[in-house]
Structure formats: structure tokens, C-alpha cells
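If you are new to this repository, start here. Below is one unmodified record pulled from the training split, so you can see the exact layout before writing a loader.
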Amino acid sequence: MEDHQHAVGLCPDIDAASRHESYDPSEIRRVLTSDGLFITQQVGGQNLDEVNQALGTPPLSPRDWDLARASAALAEAGLIVTWSQEAQVRTTFHDVGALVLFLRIVSWQVPDFDVDRYARRLRVLHEQMERGGVLTAHAHRFILLAAPNDRMARHSQAR
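And here is the target side for that same chain:
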């Protein structure tokens, strides 16, 4: 059975997991057992750019945080990515109230978000949406599964 199928199914070999949190690849390698797996789902650096543009705010930082950069950093730390996916998922806001609620929950998207601070831009969006317009943005996500290089070497030798 492929490692990612095993991990997604029952997860008994996963020693470290991360969902959106930052991580240090060297620390992951240090704490990961030789048979362990690391799985993480990350928000990419181009996440919902259209929302930031509509509000006149700077984009997320770092902009170049993506699957390629994460995979390279893990490889440099002695891990090998055994499975990964990256996606830009369309997200559509039909109502300014929904956008406001979203930005209050997802505070990293616009760190200084406050309704009063962005009232003018929100009012413009509201008027556009009242006329049938929408705000379409793209959620940038990636997920990867990584194992120590020595695990992969042992796995290849066993075949």
C-alpha cells in the first residue's frame, strides 16, 4: 500500500501533523521517527488575493509560500515528499456580511481588518452585490506528506 493511502486511511504512522500552522522543517526532521510521516495542509501565499485587492490591502506575505517552496525546504532538512497536491479553489462572496464574518474568522487574510477602517470599500462592494455582482476569489491551498529520506531508502531496499 502506498504511504499516503495508509496515512489517509488509518493514520497510525503519522508522528507529526500541521494544519495551517507554520513549522520548522529541521525540527520536524529532528522529532520525526525513522518510520514516521509528516502531513501538513497549508494556506498558500496567493490566498484570496482578490479579497485583498478589493479592500485595497497588501497581499499575504510571504507571497512565494507554495508547494514547491515547502517541498524544497523539507528536502533540505532530510525529508522526501511522497505525496502532494496544490489547488486554487474558487470562493464566491455574494454578500458583504458573509465577507465581514469570514474576515473576522480568518484574521490572517487582512490582519488589520475592522469594519470601520474598511467601511468605504465594503460599501462599494455592498452596492455592487446589491446589483447582482459577486466577489470571486481563489483560495490557495496545498497539502503534502513527507517521510525521512532514510525511511524511503530502506523501503526501496526491501523491494
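Two things worth knowing about this chain: The chain has seven helices and four strands. The beta strands are 14-19, 37-43, 79-93, 135-148.
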